[in-house]
Design a protein that fits this description.
By secondary structure, this protein is of the alpha+beta class. Helices cover 20% and strands 25% of the residues. It is built from 6 helices and 14 strands. Strands 1, 2, 6, 7, 10, 11 and 14 form a 7-stranded antiparallel β-sheet that branches. Strands 3, 4, 5, 8, 9, 12 and 13 form a 7-stranded antiparallel β-sheet that branches. A hairpin with a 4-residue loop joins β8 and β9. The protein is globular, with a radius of gyration of 21 Å. The termini are close together.
Length: 331
């Protein structure tokens, strides 16, 4: 029985590590600085050299709202069309360490994808697929984006979406490698959370500031608690941190249209395959102005040492651990 308990404990520890310490990064020095946070991921059995069709069905979830980021929150706030590009190591859509291209500037300042589409087409073999989502006129809304194709030669995905109105502020991620460097397999599912970013091309300090082009422009930079505009835009209601503003939940589809799902063997059904449009997170703000994380802590000692950043996934894993311990004690 002790052996069974140890096995269960190892399984739980491995699952927790999958939430808390994902292996999505390249070895140090091989890629640009990381531009996103991984909330959850699953590995697949699809080897990196898989020759068939691979595509990610991604769902965009808006997390930018007056309840979460109340300071000067603009009237009629909206999202531009999200742009998502799959590419090789030779292409950069944007990074958190370099100045923006004209295409990235156009998205960040105007919300238009025309120039970035031209840059994509002119990149030759460095790019594979570009998809556009729909405009969202409610910043807490979600949408299913068109699938984006990836391959062994083009395993990276980058994305951008303008926050409207703003001088040049946007959400997105850069250089997500869809192949886990540890297992050398494609991720089956991943939830990427985005911070707000400043494109570095406009000096405006409020959502509705007049155009103030920077010359020279400065590198793209993440908006943090210490770098928010003077009024404190993007800070949470307590003013202590900058909540994420968007989420991208991507799921791997293997095979051509019409082929059965290789995991279930059932006929392909996109509606059943897609992830939910909405999922609650621990930092979502409730009507009382508090987060679910704060509600969960009610009545619990601060020294407990548990973090529920992973939401329901981690709560389930800790429940599994408790059940394993209970079985061992009964035995």
């Amino acid at each position: 029985m002790a052996a069974m308990f140890c096995t269960l404990l190892v399984m739980v520890q491995q699952s927790v590590a999958q939430v808390a310490n994902p292996g999505f990064q390249e070895p140090d020095g091989q890629r640009r600085d990381q531009t996103f946070r991984v909330q959850y991921f699953e590995n697949s059995q699809i080897e990196q050299s898989y020759p068939g069709t691979l595509r990610y069905y991604c769902t965009f979830r808006g997390k930018w709202s007056k309840r979460r980021q109340p300071v000067d929150f603009p009237k009629s706030a909206s999202w531009s069309q999200p742009v998502m590009i799959s590419h090789s190591n030779e292409y950069r859509m944007w990074t958190g360490t370099e100045t923006a291209t004209l295409g990235v500037e156009s998205i960040a300042e105007e919300g238009f994808a025309t120039i970035i589409t031209n840059e994509f087409n002119n990149a030759g073999a460095g790019t594979k697929h570009l998809v556009l989502g729909e405009r969202l006129f409610n910043t807490s809304d979600s949408q299913h984006m068109p699938p984006v194709n990836v391959s062994y030669a083009h395993p990276f995905v980058s994305s951008m979406v303008k926050m409207i109105p703003s001088p040049d502020w946007f959400a997105g991620f850069s250089d997500w490698r869809t192949i886990n460097p540890v297992t050398e397999t494609f991720y089956r599912r991943i939830i990427i959370q985005s911070f707000p970013w400043d494109c570095g091309t406009d000096g405006g300090q409020t959502y509705t500031a007049l155009d103030r082009d920077l010359d020279p422009q400065v590198p793209v930079s993440r908006i943090t608690r210490t770098t928010v505009p003077p009024n404190g835009q993007y800070l949470d209601p307590t003013g202590k941190y900058v909540p994420i503003v968007a989420e991208f939940d991507c799921k791997l589809r293997v095979g051509e249209d019409g082929e059965p799902d290789p995991y279930t063997g059932l006929p392909w059904n996109e509606t059943d395959f897609r992830v939910p449009l909405y999922e609650n997170r621990d930092d979502d703000i409730f009507p009382d102005g508090r987060t679910r994380f704060e509600h969960d802590l009610d009545g619990k000692p601060e020294s407990a040492g548990f973090s529920f950043v992973g939401g329901g996934h981690q709560r389930m894993l800790f429940a599994m651990m408790a059940a394993a311990m209970a079985v061992a004690l009964l035995w």
